[in-house]
Every structure is written in structure tokens, then in C-alpha cells.
Write a structure and sequence with these properties.
By secondary structure, the protein is α+β, with helices and mostly antiparallel strands. Among the domains are: 60 residues; 69 residues. It has three helices and five strands, in the order ααβββββα. The chain has a five-stranded antiparallel β-sheet with strand order 3-2-1-4-5. A hairpin with a 5-residue loop joins strand 4 and strand 5. The longest helix has 53 residues. It starts with a helix and ends in a 5-residue tail after the last helix. Keywords: Membrane, Transmembrane, Transmembrane helix.
Length: 194
Amino acid sequence: MRRTKRVRQLLWRWRSNPLRRHDDLVEAWVVLAIWLVMVIGGTLTGLLTAHAADASFSRLRHERHPVQAVLVASKAQAVGIGADTPYDRVRATVRWTATDGSTRTGQAMVDYGHRVGSRVVVWLNSKEQLTTQPPTASAAAAEAACLGVAAAVAFGGLAFAAGRVAQWRLDQRRYDQWGREWDQVGPQWRRKTT
């Protein structure tokens, strides 16, 4: 019995009622549509974003490859090996052999603590240019999931904001209607003194 009463209270806008206005019914449908858009659209947006991000990270892992290089110069030498540093990677000049056999030199991020002449691993893209290491499969999956959740929340927030704007507009229409009705009925209720 109590559950039936609660369901009736939740669905009062759809029931036939002499006090129900057309705007009440419109608002009920707007609220239902917004919730459906938030749930279904947010889920689809999140899934599509996560899938696109994962595909992008997979493409990065496929395009980039590691190469052995020799450390030519490092800015970390001024700090000294074993000194406290807030970073675990530093920018250094490295030399490597390209796939065509030519020797190339460039700036790359390497682990802190290597001496000049030591071997380091650097990453190249498909154009044989120095680049950063691509994310691992697990890191890419975690980042894709975070991006998907963020996209779903952002889409849901936009849908919710659109629904609130629609409800605000309906409230303004109701206030205007109440004002017009009061202008008609109000003078009849005032006490007239002569």
C-alpha cells in the first residue's frame, strides 16, 4: 500500500488531474528525456571516447620503437651523479644509428645518473625522429578508462544543464501565467473601502 502511494506521488505529472497544467506534463517529459540522454548518451560517449583513446595509444605503441643510443652530453653532469634531484629523467644529447645506417644526434629524455659514453634506450617514431616512450598497455587502458569516465561525466553535465535551462524556462512561463491570472482575480479579492 505504501509503495503504491509512493509510485503515485512520483508519477503525478502523468496522471489525469484537474490541477495539472500543460507545462507540468511538458516538464515531466523533459525530465524523463534528460535522464535518458544522460544515462544512455553519457554511457555511449564514455565508451566511444575510451575506445578512441585506446586505439590512439595502440597506434602510438605500433609506430614507435626503441633504439640503442650513446649518451654524448648531459645537463645532469653539473648536478653530479648521486646528488638529490627532483626528477628521475633529464634532457641529454644522444647519438644513434638510423635504419639507413646514418649516424644521428638529438636531444632526448634519459634516466638520471648515466655517464657520458654509456648506452641508453631512446624512442623513435615512424619518421625516425626522437619522441617519448609510448604508454604501456596497462597504462594506456587506465588512461583510456579515465578519459571515458571524464567524457561521460562531461556529457551528462551538459545534458543536465540543458534540462535545467528547459525547466527554468518552464518556470518562467508558469510565473508569467500566474501573474496574468492574479491580475484578473486579485482585484476581486481586495477589500474595497469607501
